Amino acid sequence: MNKRSERLDELLDMFDKGYSLCAQYDEIPHQYGEEVLYQSEMHFLQAVGNTGDITITTISQQLGKTTSACSQMVRKLKKKNLIEQRRNEKNNREYYLNLTPKGKEIYLAHEKLDHKCIQRTKEVLDEFNDEELEIYIRIQKQLNETFQKDVQENGALVTLKAVN
Fold it and tell me: Is residue 83 within 8 Å of 12, Cβ to Cβ?
């Protein structure tokens, strides 16, 4: 194996480790006062908190989830008294979602936590100059394009297997 191949393998191993750590983080429930929320619930609350008067359809598009999955999330978060629904007066089939006062409190606490995490990451990356960061961004874009192709091809394979 040549040195370049070893370097590329190391880069992909580091990417896999980073992905694994992100996945582990997403599985950790977070405590906000009396409420325990998973990342998927918090991402949903963020979408509502960032926009307000947002519909399930819009959130499903933003989060890349089905409207059915988002409807289930609405039921969970309503039960926890974090969001509320209000019927669109011009379209009876459509509801607007907004944060309750408790939901707003959690949303703001999470925004502080996010800011702290982002600041810590930026501080760690301060040792890299702009050119190095640009190179990383170019590399990640290329990897993302490859991953997108993998998703498309494997999605097609799953569909083909289901048909056969």
Answer: no
pTM above 0.90, yes or no: no
Let me know: does 78 contact 67? Beta carbons within 8 Å: no
Give the C-alpha separation, 37 to 83, whole Å. 13
pLDDT (tens digit per residue) in 127-154: 999 999 999 999 999 999 998 898 888 8
Enumerate residues 6+ apart whose C-beta is below 8 A from 84: 78, 97, 98, 99, 100
Task: Tell the residue number behind the tokens 């409190």, with chain if given.
Answer: 105
pLDDT given for residue 90 in this prediction = 87
DSSP secondary structure string for all residues of 38-82: -HHHHHHHHHHHHHSSB-HHHHHHHHT--HHHHHHHHHHHHHTTS
| Cα 69 from Cα 125, distance rounded (Å) | 36
> How do beta strands 83-88 and 91-99 pair?
antiparallel
The C-alpha atoms of residue 164 and residue 115 are separated, in whole angstroms, by 49
Residue type, 140: Q
Average pLDDT of span 1-14: 92
